[in-house]
Amino acid sequence: MVKAGENGQEAANASRWVVGITGASGAIYGVTLCQQLLAAGCHLHMVISDAGWRVLKEELDWDASHRLDCLNKAFESALTDGRITYHPLNDIGASIASGSFRCEGMVIMPCSMGSLSNIANGASTNLLTRAADVMLKEGRPLLLVPRETPLHAIHLENMLKLARMGVKIIPAMPAFYNGPQTIQDIVFFLVGKVMDSMGITHNLYKRWGPSNG
To answer: From CA 10, how far away is CA 16, in angstroms rounded?
Structure first.
């Protein structure tokens, strides 16, 4: 675990969320979510799969050989000042691997079908899937943002299994009723939908209806 900052203490009143990023395409979704959660005053416990780091390199040109530097640059020194706690994927003794760790819940964005399958079948093969398993056993919110197409029957069955267990499945499907003009608009829409499900106020997209602004 990497926990930086002068005193390593999280703000007592900060909302704590676990955020996972896996090897599905759409790394920008996870990065933007983290940026918005930090702006909302949340403290993040972050875990990124090895494939997730590969996608961050391929899609966002991150230098995955200097992981902590990448995180500090992307999140404005949030790692250094203690607003992000980064957990290596294989650190099975990390705080988020235990049900005694208190947090609001967990989001995996984007979520690969491999990680989703492991979660659906209780296979805690690394810290990311173990943390998700903890959310299930403790009855805490677990939100998954799968990004795959087309979907075959196993994908659909795994998502149905998790949905029946109370997991929020939020596929990376953009909408166009809000008139997006840029890629950022599309990303903000999906991140906003996730934050809606987390109960966190935002102004990332224009809501439908004349009274919503």
So the answer is: 9
Please name the residues in contact with 34: beta carbons below 8 A apart, sequence gap of 6 or more: 19, 44, 46, 74, 75, 84
Amino acid at 20: G
Question: What does the pLDDT look like over 187-200, one tens digit per residue?
Answer: 999 999 999 999 99
Closest CA to 70 of 51, 86, 91: 86
CA distance 78 to 19: 14
CATH topology for the 16-198 domain:
Rossmann fold (3.40.50)
Answering whether pTM is above 0.85, one says: yes
List, for residues 39-76, the tens digit of each pLDDT value: 999 999 999 999 999 999 999 999 989 999 999 999 98
**Residues in Cβ contact with 15 at an 8 Å cutoff, skipping those fewer than 6 apart:** 40, 41, 42, 43, 104, 200
* CA–CA–CA angle 84, 20, 62 (5° rounding): 75
